[in-house]
Amino acid sequence: MIRSLYTAVSGMITQEAKQDVITNNLANVNTVGFKGDNLAAKQFDEVLLYNYDKKVHGKNVRQNIGNISLGSRIDDVATNFTQGTIERTDKPFDFAIEGRGFFVVNRNDGVTGNNFYTRDGHFHINSRGFLVNDSGDNVMGRNLRSGAVEPIRLEDDKATVDVNGNIMVNNTLTYKLQLVDFRGNNYNYKNLKKIGDNLYMGNNAREYNDITVKQSCLERSNVNVARETMELMTVMRTFETNSKVIQAIDETLGKAVNEVGSVR
């Protein structure tokens, strides 16, 4: 009886975690470049039940009854990196990546700070002339004169960017957007971690020249509202079912204690 109570409670905990993931997806449906998450659950290791009620030659012997599951648990929260819809904005410093790849931004001074990765290409020029994201992080690029990777600084706000990320000002190539991917990691983004502000942290990022950039465009969130809403309804019904199971178990335990236990 107690085992069944634990099983139902573990189910409620899992459904509550799923609800948190789904509501976060729905809250970011209009966030540029946002990638939705999926929560995977798995069952606890099964437990073998047995007793010694069986008698052989007058002795009690072990008898296997079967396996029982002790409920579900959270396995992993995986991010879905499928392409979002690319929409034109006609703003010169909006950029979208078509296919694989990430922009690189640097927090703090662009030199000693940490590099992070994002699909959110909603950039603008700050008061000091640096290209930054909405959080004020420096957008990194390769200086085509010195060859150094540094924060992109533009003297003119009328820059054009080609599909390879090359930035041209007054018909002069100045920078190339630093575009990276994680193809050395078995072609997946399994080790990338969301850190907030629509940024990711990860290792083994490598620059690639075959990443396609579109200027004056933004990649929309890849969250499917209809699917997430259906998932949310399923989670709520499952949570409610587990709650009713716990209520039934509680009533049964109450009868066992108050009625069966009081019989003399």
Question: What tags apply to this protein structure?
Answer:
2 domains; 9-stranded antiparallel beta sheet; 264 residues; alpha+beta; 21 strands; single chain; 23% helix; two-stranded antiparallel sheet
Walk me through what this model shows.
- The chain is of the alpha+beta class.
- The chain has two domains: 2-79 and 223-260, no CATH class; 86-219, no CATH class.
- The chain is built from two helices and 21 strands.
- The model has no long low-confidence stretch (mean pLDDT 85).
Number of helices: 2
The N- and C-terminal alpha carbons lie at a distance of 22 Å
Order of helices and strands: HEEEEEEEEEEEEEEEEEEEEEH
Alpha-beta classification: alpha+beta
**Mean pLDDT across all amino acids:** 85
Using only CA atoms, what is the Rg? 28 Å
Largest sheet: 9 strands, antiparallel
Percentage of residues in DSSP E strands: 35-45%
Keywords: Bacterial flagellum, Cell projection, Cilium, Flagellum
InterPro entries: Flag_bb_rod_N, Flagellar_basal_body_rod_CS, Flagellar_FlgE/F/G, Flg_bb/hook_C_dom, FlgE/F/G-like, LlgE_F_G-like_D1
Domain Flagellar hook protein FlgE/F/G-like D1: 96-165
Domain Flagellar basal body rod protein N-terminal: 5-35
